[in-house]
Amino acid sequence: MKQLLEDIKTGQFRQAYLLYGQEAYLRSQYRDRLKNAMTQEGDTMNFSSFQGKDINPAQIIDLAETMPFFAERRVILIQDSGWFKKGGEALADYLKSPAPTAFFIFAEAEIDKRSRLFKAVKETGCAVEFSTQDETTLKRWILGRIKKENKTISQAGLELFLQKTGSDMENIDRELEKLFCYTLPKDAITEADIEAVCTQQMSGKIFDMIEAVAAGKQQEALQLYYDLLALKEPPMRILFLIGRQFSLLVQVKELRAKGYDNRRIGEKTGLHGFIAGKYVSQSSRFEMSVLKEALADCVKTDEAVKNGRMNDRLGVEMLIVRYSGISGK
């Protein structure tokens, strides 16, 4: 990252940049900063953009060999090509001796560091990973955005907001914009404001559903399920997320039994600290045997639906009914 920022600041660019990782918001932000620094505004003659897995490498190389039109460089942006996992060999060879006026920006969610193209970019230019940000970084970023709008938020409000949005920065950005518009005449963002306008992520709704199951609130759990169906969520996707939830609860309960605190549990399961504590609390509502049985039933239901022995909607409903009220400490 330091090298990328230095290159943008000085205007001394390398011939290839790879921006990769699961944090799409940061990836796109730095993609645009790099592109804007390397090209003149509105210059469509010397900037080309390609996206997807059907890009022809030979076409890219031909374009790279074409002299720029009254400009220092020709900039080629390639996104989501999959070439850093398979198929990038021709471009990897080209990058060993590219045209001096050809500059590449690659943006990919997933890469294989063993690929020839990755190694070629590392040798020729710069590769920067944008991974999911930790809790502290996210909070600092959100508070910075809120301060810029001359607003304030309480610690409890910040926690609630993150519980609603999850850790995806693109989603956080969208929800912040909604909040800023909703609280335009106000100085402070309250928990009531967040409840009023922020959309809870699917994983949060599944968490609430399992929480209702754990508390024996069968009607509430079923209503949450029906709400998801009304939002056109496929029953099999809901089933997958229920299974994932029970799997996480098994892991959390096992780690808690070994004496791990919430922070360490979060690190080992990939849950942010502000969420890990809630999972610890939820897991305590179930016996381990019940969690493992529920996880096995999710697998059985999935198989039964796929084999045509059970209706998908009914299968998930039966799971919810079965485990409502049978949790124990």
Summarize the structure.
The chain is an alpha/beta fold. The protein contains 16 helices and 7 strands.
Strand percent estimate = 5-15%
Distance between the ends: 47 Å
Q: Strand count, sense and closure of the main sheet?
A: 5 strands, parallel
- The low-confidence parts are none
Rg, rounded, reads 24 Å
Oligomer: single chain
Structural class based on helices, strands and sheet pairing: alpha/beta
- Helix-strand topology string: HEHEHEHEHEHEHHEHHHHHHHH
Mean pLDDT value: 91
> How do the strands line up in the largest sheet?
2-3-4-1-5
Annotation field: number of helices: 16
Share of helical residues: 55-70%
Record field, number of beta strands: 7
3D structure, described in words:
The protein is of the alpha/beta class and 329 residues long. The protein has 16 helices and seven strands. The protein has helices at residues 2-10, 24-38, 57-64, 89-94, 116-124, 135-148, 155-165, 169-182, 191-197, 202-214, 218-230, 235-257, 262-269, 273-283, 288-306, 312-323, and strands at 16-20, 47-51, 74-79, 102-108, 126-129, 152-153, 188-189. The longest helix is centred in the C-terminal third of the chain and has 23 residues, at 235-257. It is globular and about 70 Å long. The mean pLDDT is 91. It comes from Candidatus Eisenbergiella merdavium. Residues 205-323 form the DNA polymerase III delta subunit-like C-terminal domain. Belongs to the DNA polymerase HolA subunit family. Keywords: DNA replication, DNA-directed DNA polymerase, Nucleotidyltransferase, Transferase.
